[in-house]
Each structure stands twice: as structure tokens, then as C-alpha cells.
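Researcher: Next entry in the queue.
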Amino acid sequence: MATIDTVVFDLGGVLVDWNPDYLYKEIFPGEEERKWFLSNICTLDWNEEQDAGRTLKEGTEYLVRKYPEHEKYIRMYYDRWKEMLGGPIHETVEIFRHLKEKSKVRLYALTNWSAETFPIALELYEFLHWFDGRLVSGAEKIRKPSPDIYKLLIRRFDIDPSRAVYVDDNLRNVTPAKALGFYGIHFQSPGQFRQELEQLGVW
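Model: Structure for this entry, 203 residues:
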């Protein structure tokens, strides 16, 4: 295998803890009711349309028209979006810090994230400014797992996939990266991630 010179991070679930449960557990204390709402009304598939470039207003109004009886709780999703952030995943941030300070690899972010909410995270988390470059799906109006967003990443930052690692907590998003030649890591824990980096000689 070629020497690794680039590591590409997913953000949510790898470096940033984001979960709608953090907000809705206060709104729906009962787990069954909360799970039903997030599985049937404000679903992850619906949220990903905003990650793909649909505006928060468009996404919200679409659901309000479809489920007017849930309007109050639908509007809370983006009105109180900040409350879904659980903070940095500190152990992974420390891995990132080590790579930034001690290694010679280039560091990039490829994230499914709304262009309207990403600036909030940039204000909150200094480490998001450490990357050599970031590609945010909402700004590009295309999201993972479309192969096109990985190809855009490769072109924009002149990445050789055969010399690059891509890490993501969603296996669905690792698969297209591997198909394009990246060494894919399915993130399950900071310790597992670090171990795989060590095996690749990146650490």
C-alpha cells in the first residue's frame, strides 16, 4: 500500500456529537413517543435533504404542510437545533490534534451538513478550523453517499485516493470512498480509529 499522505474526516459522529435525541428527550420524555416522532415525522432522511442543499425554511414548511398537527414540534427542530449538539468527541479531537501537530499528512473534512447550521458549529468548535480544507454538502448541494461528492473532494483538494484515508461513522458513506480507492475506516470508537491509523503507519 502507498504511503498515506491525507486523512479525510467525517464530522458528525466522529468529531462532533450530534443527536436529535438531546433536544427531543426534553420535549417527549417518553422514549416510545420520541422514537416515533423521529422515525416518522422529523426523520434523518428528511434532515438529509437540508444537508443536500434544501433550505431549512423549505424543509420545515414541507413537513408542516404534511403534518400540521405536529407543527409546534417540527419547528423546534431547527429553531432549537443547537440543543442537538452534545459537544466535541474529545478523544477523536485529540487524535486530530496529534495528526495536525505531529504528522505530515494533509487533513480535510467531508461532511453531510446544512450550509445554514454549519456556521454555528464553526463558532462553537475551534478544531473545525484546523483542516486544510472542508467540503460541506449543503454548500455544494450534493451529499454522501453520492460518488460525485467524493470526486469533487478529490478534484478540489488534489487528493490521490490511493494515498488517502477516509473515516466515517456511517458505513454507507465509507463504501463509495473505498470504491474510489480510499482506505476506508468505519469509525466505531476513537480507540479503534487510532489503532487503524497506527496499522497504516499514520500515527
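Model: The chain has a mean pLDDT of 97.
Researcher: Noted, moving on.
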